[in-house]
Every structure is written in structure tokens, then in C-alpha cells.
Amino acid sequence: MRSRILFVVGIAVGYVVGARAGRSAYDAVVERVKGAAGSPTVQKVAEKAKDAVEEKAPKVAEVAKQATETATAAATAAKEAGEQTDDESTSDEEKPAEDEKPSEDEKPDEAPKPTPPPASSTTEAPKPAGTAS
Known about the structure:
By secondary structure, the chain is mainly α. Among the domains are: 1-37, no CATH class; 50-80. The protein is built from 3 helices and no strands. The protein starts with a helix and ends in a 44-residue tail after the last helix.
């Protein structure tokens, strides 16, 4: 159903943008869209969509917050691990002078890459067979 609505909207927009018939064709399309937008069927679908968004928004915000916290923790751990590796691997005596470039063998290893956040434990319910997306 959603794909059909998007298809019709795409056709209407394409027609308006590409119309060479002038202002009258544009006005006709605008009136049809306004009429469709005011229909009870479209209003019901819009209300259902609004309710679904209001229901899911807090959960989406919580998942985003958890992902941000996980990524921040991973980045901090990676940074600390990289600093510890650099501090432990090179003593003051072994460090090259400021104007000397280290050779390829002396370059420190790259810091470990952070691990990706764990996959969300929530999954979308399977759709019944025969439904279009």
C-alpha cells in the first residue's frame, strides 16, 4: 500500500515538474492532491502512521542513546589502548630526536580498531505471507 501511494505521488510530482501544458495543468494536479489529502481514507492512514511514530519514537531514541554510549566507550578504550601501547613500547632512550624521522621498522603499530556496537536485541516482526512492502 505504501509503495502504491509513493508511486502515485511520484507520478504527480513528475507530471507537475515536467508539464508543458502551463498553469492550468498545475492547478488541476494541485486540486486533485488537495482532494486526495482530505479524503477519509488518507486521513485514516495518516493517523495510523502518526500513532506508529509516537509509539516507536521513545524506543528508537533509547536504542540510539545506547549505540552512542557503546561507540563512545569503544573509542575511549581504543584511544587509551593506543596511548598505553605507545608509552610502553618506547622508552625515553629509544625515542628518535624531534628532527629525526623513524624508519619503517621503528614506526609504532596502529591503535586497535574499536569493536562495533552489539546488534539490537529488537527485531521487526515477520510480515504475513502475501503482503507487499
